[in-house]
């Protein structure tokens, strides 16, 4: 499996409201899972402020390193929505009013299509549109960049519209083994199991619950068969040191 | 106020569990608010995988651009906890077993201080410790970098231990005005109000609730008096175009 082409993506989250702590981002986790289903791995994320240079720098750094780059936030009708301008600047493209986007908004708003609303039809030159089934104002695709809304409900609608349209590889699958233990007690078993089974990554995630210490051990691989085999080995290894494993998540 | 020294910070969130969407980050928003109280502005965030180079590159890019750099994740006892090694490599420092950290762990674990647990006493050479009131294994300060846990409860305890110890400037205050309106209807009023009042930023955050459209307009400034003045102006501007403002958040 290791010779397979691996498809990667990055995300730029745009918005002072995230950096001030006012708004809890909900797009990262949703996008990560959606990408996983498409066989694409989210490899890095940046959160930047509503600032032309900050957005352009992040976009230019990440778009060349990954197959796909997503952005969320800053595509509404107000003065703080500068994502389109920043990405156009990053790509050295002009900003135009996209005729199809204008038609969608004209159809939706009728004679209420004000200048502010028309801002939502602006795209970098040469872009195509991503359908927004929820509130009409479209997302934008330009080169390998997907410009999405900040409001999670809208972004999720746009991702649904993209379902199955992006080329990906084998999805990364996961399987969880758990135990009521301090992770420091099982560190050697985890390390050895990962080392002896190339192609499987094992993450250890401790928790404290009802006064007890436990940990979930998440195995990741593109092979269901390998996941099953290594989960068995890990559970056997835990039992060898006197710890009762749980086959699943705690 | 504009001549005041502005203190900035960045955050590197380390962990495949965030990038896979398995775990929802909760440290960004908490740290952002905590920094705000200290008079420090969180300006950028990166999320990177459990990979030495990815961590080191992010740390080296951000530590020179900001007064403070925080990291969360990857400081436990297991094989996937490589933050200390990556940051030491980024700084060109050796990794040592910190004598004070070793003493804290020895006191806590007694004769159960295994090699795996001793991993949690490793720091870059020349570091100092950040108290962990919850689970003992300390956080680490080296140069302007603060190395914190990934588990939110532990990180919050470490931040409490740092309360009031970092030099900051005037805190950024905020005040919210809201209205049941589409933000596209008020875009001109928002833009004009921000343009006419330097020192105040206005963010517009739309929502849909119970079938109705509304938006919160968040004013940010270091001056309470200016916030009050501009909030009045914004509410007057909204009333001029026939929209009833709410003095507060919806």
**CATH level-two architecture of the largest domain in chain A:** 3-Layer(aba) Sandwich
Using the coordinates shown, work out and report the CATH topology of the largest domain in chain A: Molybdenum Cofactor Biosythetic Enzyme, Chain A
| SSE pattern of chain A | EHHEHEHEHHEEEEHEHEEH
Instruction: Give the number of domains of chain A.
Output: 2
The dominant shape of chain A is elongated
- Overall average residue pLDDT of chain A: 94
Oligomeric state as shown: homodimer
Strand content of chain A: 25-35%
Rg of chain A from C-alpha positions? 22 Å
Kindly report the name of the CATH homologous superfamily of the largest domain in chain A.
MoaB/Mog-like domain
Q: How do the helices and strands line up, and which of them pair or pack?
A:
The structure is a homodimer.
Chain A: E1 7-14, H1 16-19, H2 27-38, E2 40-48, H3 52-63, E3 68-72, H4 83-91, E4 95-97, H5 99-109, H6 115-118, E5 122-124, E6 128-130, E7 139-142, E8 145-148, H7 152-162, E9 173-179, H8 183-195, E10 201-209, E11 212-221, H9 224-240
Parallel strand pairs in A: 1-2, 1-3, 3-8
Antiparallel strand pairs in A: 4-5, 6-7, 7-8, 9-11, 10-11
InterPro entries (chains A, B): CinA, FLAD1_M, MoaB/Mog-like_dom_sf, MoaB/Mog_dom
Pfam families (chains A, B): FLAD1_M (PF24102), MoCF_biosynth (PF00994)
Protein name (chains A, B): Competence/damage-inducible protein A
């Amino acid at each position: 499996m290791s010779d397979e082409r691996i498809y990667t993506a990055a995300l730029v989250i745009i918005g002072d409201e995230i950096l001030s702590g006012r708004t809890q981002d909900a797009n990262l986790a949703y996008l990560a899972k959606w990408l996983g289903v498409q066989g694409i791995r989210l490899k890095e994320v940046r959160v930047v402020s509503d600032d032309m240079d900050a957005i352009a720098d992040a976009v230019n750094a990440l778009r060349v390193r990954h197959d796909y780059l997503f952005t969320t936030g800053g595509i509404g009708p107000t003065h703080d929505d500068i994502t389109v301008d920043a990405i156009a600047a990053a790509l050295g493209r002009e900003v135009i009013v996209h005729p199809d986007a204008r038609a969608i908004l004209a159809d939706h708003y009728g004679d209420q299509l004000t200048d502010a609303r028309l801002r939502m039809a602006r795209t970098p030159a040469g872009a195509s549109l991503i359908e927004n089934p929820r509130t009409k104002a479209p997302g934008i695709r330009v080169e390998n960049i997907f410009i999405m809304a900040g409001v999670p409900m809208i972004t999720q609608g746009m991702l649904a519209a993209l379902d199955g349209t992006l080329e990906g590889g084998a999805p990364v699958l996961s399987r969880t083994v758990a135990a009521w233990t301090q992770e420091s007690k099982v560190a050697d078993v985890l390390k050895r199991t990962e080392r002896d089974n190339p192609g499987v990554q094992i993450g250890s995630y401790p928790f404290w619950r009802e006064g007890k210490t436990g940990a979930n051990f998440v195995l990741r691989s593109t092979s269901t068969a390998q996941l099953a085999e290594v989960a068995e080995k890990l559970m056997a290894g835990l039992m060898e040191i006197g710890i009762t494993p749980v086959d699943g998540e705690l």
